[in-house]
Amino acid sequence: MSIRGIVLVVILAIVGGAAVWVGWMVRYRPLTVFAWQTRAALRTAGLRKVHVPAPAGDQTVFVGGRGPVVVLLHGAGDNAGTWFKVVPELIGSHRLIVPDLAGHGDSAPRRGPIDVADVLGGVEAVLDVVAPGQKVVLVGNSLGAWIAMLVAQRHPDRVAMAICVDGGAIRGSNLRARVLPQNRGEARESVEQTRDRTSPPVPDFVLDDIVRQAREGPLARFAASAATMDSYVLDETQLRELRAPVQLIWGASDRLVPLDYAERMKVQLPHAGLVTLERCGHVPQIECPDRFLAALRTALEAAP
Known about the structure:
Rossmann fold; 12 helices
């Protein structure tokens, strides 16, 4: 065989092996593939990736755009890529800061339990390094909303507004929340709690990956620190003392953190509004991005 023939065989073998690997990843690690795609979309939209030192270790942050500063905080078990449909719509009018929360995505810590203190300290470090002395709007989904409210409480001079999306800093009351499913049936129940009933069903191979993530992913690591979380729950007095206005955006179909949670929190906040999104669940930036973006733009226009 000629050298050219040998090179061709080697190339075909490499291409074939890569195709097999990609096929395996799509079949057995679909959540990882989705994360790759969404994070790549952040870069395509114009964000650049930087690293910020923090008490728990280096935090990964996507930064870009010009204008008023908006910080997008994802939920537990998620990563910065969850905002991939939002970033292209805001980057032309805002400076965006989109971190992987501590223990998620590429941010430290890579192993062991993830404490609320790690996540909070990571966001504070990001603000100090990437937006020093600037007043920001914090937009948080689920855990990100909890952190947004904690930052607003601890640093009132740094936060122009907290926009909380299906999450907050008060104690929940959903005793049927399915957070860490242990089998395919429980995973299906978990997904159904977070989405509208009319949303397309999730394939079984994705449900299997959800179970895997529930055992070893960042959500499981965050849940492992549950005993330390109570000290980060805000009581009625602390809520009433919040100086920053709070806008609540809620998926009406969210059964993981139902609408009554938002209504309880709104009553205790001195400056709060509530917008509900029909036929949307716990992660509206993914499930119903157009309507979510409309509500988000309205809230940003009202920010001080």
